[in-house]
Design a protein that fits this description.
Length: 254
């Protein structure tokens, strides 16, 4: 289990990235019979000699992370399994990944207890948690309505504009920057949707495999039940035969 988090989420954008992840979206398939889980991969950022990492949450009895902390000394991806215990998801759950550069003789046991920790830069990543149902809903609700609104607004401004020369150039440059910002938002939305789609597709394949395994197991159990029923019938017939052979004759009536 994880300990409840104690360090604040860093807001300092100057903190250099210490590690990379293959995903920050964790989507749990809470309809499965066993505990839902996802595997992510974390890697040490280049040009950093050694880092310590740890996962923290505000729901330590709900999340199991294996491993929950450690030291990264190379850039090879480290698989980390995140388990939602009991499949009890709550939108208020937080899951953080924190990392610091290891100094001197620090190790995974004492690096987070250092007296200098408060003055050190802690690189923090907050995961976006959800469930398969919420992920599907997010994909279905995605569209580029906001992008179309911005484009329509720009066309309206261009039609009404009376500026010429340098003021016109500045106006067009401003509109171009607005379009770039809108394009970046749309691109991020598309990327997010594709990532969620990929995760849900993998979960669907897992469900298909589980369904096939359960169907095979059910057929095996039915065959075993049929065999047991036949054996029980045979045993009952044999016992009845033995009983009939050794049954005492009824006493004669006077």
């Amino acid at each position: 289990m994880l300990a409840s988090y104690s360090l604040p989420v860093t807001r300092d954008e100057t903190v250099k990235p210490l590690l990379t992840l293959d995903q920050t979206y964790i989507i749990f398939d809470i309809d499965r019979k066993d505990d839902a889980s996802e595997v992510i991969r974390i890697s040490k950022a280049p040009r950093v000699s050694k880092i310590a990492f740890r996962f923290q949450t505000n729901a330590p009895t709900r999340y199991i992370v294996q491993p929950s902390s450690g030291i990264l000394t190379d850039c090879n991806p480290l698989p980390v399994k995140i388990i939602l215990y009991g499949n009890r998801y709550n939108p208020n759950h937080l899951l953080l990944l924190q990392a610091v550069e290891v100094q001197g003789s620090e190790d995974r046991r004492n690096v987070w207890q250092s007296l200098k920790m408060e003055s050190r830069s802690v690189y923090t990543i907050r995961f976006q948690l959800g469930t398969t149902v919420l992920g599907i809903s997010q994909i279905l609700n995605f569209d580029d309505t906001e992008s179309r609104k911005v484009q329509q607004g720009i066309l309206r401004v261009l039609r009404l504009s009376r500026k010429v020369g340098a003021p016109k150039v500045r106006e067009l440059e401003s509109l171009l920057e607005m379009l770039k910002g809108d394009e970046e938002i749309l691109k991020n939305n598309v990327d997010q949707t594709m990532k969620i789609k990929s995760i849900i597709k993998a979960q669907l394949e897992q469900r298909k495999k589980t369904s096939a395994d359960l169907t095979t197991r059910l057929a095996d159990i039915e065959r075993e039940c049929d065999a047991l029923n036949r054996k029980i019938g045979e045993d009952q017939a044999e016992l009845q035969k033995i009983y009939d052979n050794f049954r005492l004759p009824a006493p004669a009536t006077k």
